[in-house]
Amino acid sequence: MTLLVRDSEELLRSNLEFHLRQGVDFYIITDNGSVDGTAEIIDEYVRAGLAESIFEPEDTYSQGRWVTRMARRAASDHGADWVINNDDDEFWYGREGDLKQTLASAAGSVAAIEVQRGNHPPVVGVDGFRFLETMIYRERASLNPLGDPLPPKVCHRGFADIEVGQGNHAVARAGALLKPTPTDAITISHFPLRGYAAFERKIALGGAAYERNAHLPPEVGATWRRLHEILRSGELRAWYDRQVLKPEQVRRGLADGSLVVDDTVARTLGKLQDVACAAKA
């Protein structure tokens, strides 16, 4: 699994531990100039032999180029059978069996797999580091902040010449897109909105980085760019507050089927906390 992270101390350890339980063998993590405790967390997993770390100081959010570098290293240096190019707010899991078992069962002719994402909206009263324990409602069909259907992500077999597109939504070899095989055997729980302070910082840093990137066309990163405009207009907090689910919205969503209870991440991380507490006792 590859991860591109920046100031991810809130999420990173939970993400790594969750995916270890899903059968992920190894991580390649690019730290794009973090100033919080992210580097120290990465170092723990490097010392444990579970990760390789790359430091990327360039502040242009050239995600496609940086993730391509990691994905190629996964194949050429680590002999990866499958590569999942992940974000720190995405939690992949198999519906029957873990990720490793699910991907191992794919037909040999399948070079890439398309996986749908479902957003877990923030709920009233949830903030900070406890959000994963309580954000258990997943949208059955999610939209991005522009109101368009949330695009799926693509994982792929290990290829030393792979090209990963910006956003991890598409992959190619020798300039030719690989047609991914859709699957419902894997789900991605997506937690893009958590506490407001972390969200505002993410948009401030990411939006500014996109503006500095002279190589990407303006339509690439449209969601980030739009949210950055809203931030500069002083309306981001109001926009965020409109996304937070109130109790009546939860009840209505569960009744009409637009929300489903999905506590896979919460249950897994809860079990990890139980193990940690038992070890300290």
Helix percentage: 25-40%
Mean pLDDT: 92
Number of domains: 1
Provide the structure class.
alpha/beta
* Level-1 CATH class name: Alpha Beta
Shape: globular
The CATH topology, please? Answer: Spore Coat Polysaccharide Biosynthesis Protein SpsA, Chain A
Radius of gyration: 18 Å
In terms of per-residue confidence, which ranges show pLDDT below 50 for 5 or more consecutive residues? 274-281
Distance between the termini: 33 Å
Please count the helical segments. 10
H/E element string?
A: EHEHEHEEEHEHEEEEEEHHHHEH
User: In the CATH classification, which architecture applies?
Assistant: Alpha-Beta Complex
Give the strand content: 15-25%
Strand order in the sheet with the most strands: 4-9-7-13-6
- Let me know the number of strands: 14
Task: Walk me through what this model shows.
- It is globular, with a radius of gyration of 18 Å.
- The chain contains ten helices and 14 strands.
- With 281 residues, it is α/β, with parallel strands linked by helices.
- The protein has a five-stranded mixed beta sheet.
- It has one domain: Spore Coat Polysaccharide Biosynthesis Protein SpsA, Chain A, CATH 3.90.550.
- The longest helix has 17 residues, at 196-212.
